[in-house]
Design goal:
CATH class: Mainly Alpha
Number of domains: 1
CATH architecture: Orthogonal Bundle
Structural class: mainly alpha
Number of helices: 5
Domain HTH luxR-type: 11-76
Number of strands: 2
Pfam family, one: GerE
Radius of gyration: 12 Å
Organism: Cellulomonas shaoxiangyii
CATH topology: Arc Repressor Mutant, subunit A
Shape: globular
Strand order of the largest sheet: 1-2
Strand content: 5-15%
Protein name: LuxR family transcriptional regulator
Keywords: DNA-binding, Transcription, Transcription regulation
Largest sheet: 2 strands, antiparallel
């Protein structure tokens, strides 16, 4: 199985799939940066990043940034 397939499989769980952008945002959350800095890096607004973060949290069952980052590490997204 290729690295790309492994990462795609890691982002699929309990019937929900993280979008490509959600995986990017989730990986960015692992860095010591603000949502504003993530938005600047991704050329979107802070509100867009907030919406994507909320969607990621809902899909993976996280309620904090630390939980989301731990999930990302455990599933090979970071």
């Amino acid at each position: 199985m290729s690295m790309l397939e492994t990462r795609a499989n890691a982002a699929t769980f309990t019937g929900h799939t993280l979008t490509r952008r959600e995986r990017v945002v989730l990986a960015e959350l692992a860095e010591d940066v603000t949502l504003e800095e993530i938005a600047t890096r991704l050329f979107v607004t802070r509100n867009t990043v907030k919406s994507q973060v909320r969607s990621v949290y809902r899909k993976i069952g996280a309620s904090t940034r630390a939980e989301a980052v731990a999930w990302a590490v455990a599933h090979g997204i970071r």
